[in-house]
Amino acid sequence: MTEHDAADLGAYIKHDAVALAPTGNGPLSGLNFAVKDLYDIAGHVTGAGSPDWLASHPAATATASAVTKLLAAGGRMVAKAQTDEMAFSITGQNAHYGTPVNVNAQDRIPGGSSSGSAAAVAGGLVDFALGSDTGGSVRMPAGFCGIHGIRTTQGRIPVDGVHPLAPCFDTIGWFTRGGALMENIGRVLLPNAGAPSKPRRLLVARDCFALLPDQAAAALAGAVDQVAEHFEKREEIDISEAGPDQWMPHFRALQMADIWRAHGAWIERAKPNFGPGVADRFAAAAKISEEAEGEGRAVRDAVRQHLSDLLGDDGILCLPTAPGIAPLCETPEAELDDFRWRAMGLTCIAGLSGCPQINLPLAGLDHCPLGLGLMARQGGDETLLHLAAGIAP
Questions:
Q1: For the domain that residue 239 is a member of, what is the CATH number?
Q2: Backbone phi, then psi, for 201, in 5-degree steps?
Q3: Hey, what's the torsion of the CAs at 296, 358, 79, 30, to 10 degrees?
Q4: Domain boundaries, position 242
Q5: Residue 149 domain-assigned?
Q6: Total Cβ atoms within 10 A of residue 224
């Protein structure tokens, strides 16, 4: 892979130059990283991909603990990375700041909302980058850009100093170009990180692969076989009688209601100039009924129990990261919205279950990356990271 100049990729914010030296020595010494512009850095305003948010908020008084841990472990922060507006998208396109370049599919979107973080890692600007994942915002760009990316167990890593989207689903995640470094970062960021267990069963989610076009499903088949070599047993299963995409509206109801609780008062007061799609989604968030939210909570509780029973102590779920390769940059908003809904039929599984999920860059289609996802039980982050390091170091 050819390394690129930061200006060529549009991965970093331009309104502020933010860099921090290491505060200690450790497993990340000598490595550079970028941080999604949702993470507070003391003395700087967190922009959240929105000029209106940037203009209406003061500088942070403390640095997010996830960032301070990386600095203490020897990492050097070199920049803040671009994000979709208010982190409320999975495309990577920001109407105000542009679209970071996906170096591994240059005519296609990088995915969001951790778009700049993924683009910086894929383009070789940094060794790793912090992102966040609410509805797929680490997993999707990792899959589209052909790199590793993890959504950690819900609530495991503290999100203090991280600008919220929907707190009920917000999680911390990160990107690298190799599995070994993914695991090293996990040892730094995961509280009480322990030894990984050895999973025995690979559960291949037939109903998730059935949501893909035949060509994409066929392209992932070899990657699934590669992963299966690391397990004693492979099982083809359906994770939902009706299909996991039927869970998505319930995920969406919970997410949207939480988003409006987090940002509704500011939106009504500041009347921000949101870009296409973002304004519509916030307007929809304002209309979620208590009944829909209550139904969503019931489905979430059932999905959490179901996935816990399914995975047990030795199971790993295998599923597509996205419903295909990254859409073209000029794809109309209506088609992107359709893709978004189909994508969330896959990404909602980790959100509702609270389970960690990692993207492995093991496949491609039409000269573009195509991601494969692995999901572990809640708290199984170490096992997932160790497994990924063994499969794609």
A1: 3.90.1300.10
A2: -110, 125
A3: 150
A4: 201-391
A5: yes
A6: 20
Residue 1 counted as domain residue: no
Share of the chain above pLDDT 90, in %: 96
Residues forming a β-bridge with 219? none
| Domain end point (choices 169, 189, 209) | 189
Q: Quick: pLDDT tens for 323-360.
A: 999 999 999 989 999 999 999 999 999 999 999 999 99
In a domain, 123, yes or no: yes
Do 299 and 335 reside in the same domain of the chain? yes
What pTM was estimated for this model as a whole?
0.97
**Alpha carbon of 186 to those of 131, 151, 376: distances in Å?**
13, 11, 15
Which of 65, 113, 114, 115 is an active site residue?
113
Mean pLDDT of all residues in 201-224:
97
pLDDT of residue 1: 39
Quote the mean pLDDT of the chain.
96
Is the bond preceding 137 in cis, omega lying within 30 degrees of 0?
no
> How many domains does the chain contain in total?
2
Clarify whether 113 is annotated catalytic: yes
Predicted local confidence at residue 8, as pLDDT: 84
Stretch 49-78: mean pLDDT: 98
Quick check: is 137 catalytic?
yes
Percent of the chain with pLDDT over 70: 98
pLDDT tens column, 365-384: 999 999 999 999 999 999 99
Selecting among 89, 115, 132, 137, the annotated active-site residue is 137
Extended strands (E) in 72-113? 76-81
Per the annotation, the verdict on 80 as an active-site residue is: no
The catalytic position among 36, 50, 69, 353 is 36
- Sheet of strand 171-176: strand arrangement: 76-81, 32-36, 128-133, 171-176, 148-151, 357-365, 368-375, 315-320, 201-205, 233-237
Phi then psi dihedrals of residue 371, to 5 deg: -90, 150
Q: Are strands 32-36 and 128-133 parallel, antiparallel or unpaired?
A: parallel
Flag whether 195 is in a domain.
no
